[in-house]
Amino acid sequence: MRLFRCDNCGNAIYFENRSCLNCGMRLGFVSDEICLHPVRPDSTQSDLWRRIDQQQFIYRFCGNAVWDVCNWLVRAEGGEKYCVACRYNGLVPNPKTSDGLRRWRAISDAQRHLFYSFLRLDLPRQSRLEDPQGGLRFDLKEDEILPDGSCNPVMIGHDEGHIVIRAAEADDPTREQQRAMMNEPYRTLLGHFRHETGHFIWNRMVRDAGKIDGFRAIFGDESVDYGQALERHYREGPPRGWGSNYISFYATSHPWEDFAECFAHVLHIIDSLETAHMFGIALAPVSPDLATSHANFDPYSVLDFERIAEVWVPLSVALNSIHHSMGERDLYPFILTPAIKQKMGYVHGLLTRQV
Question: Which residues form the Zinc-ribbon domain (predicted)?
Answer without folding.
Answer: 3-94
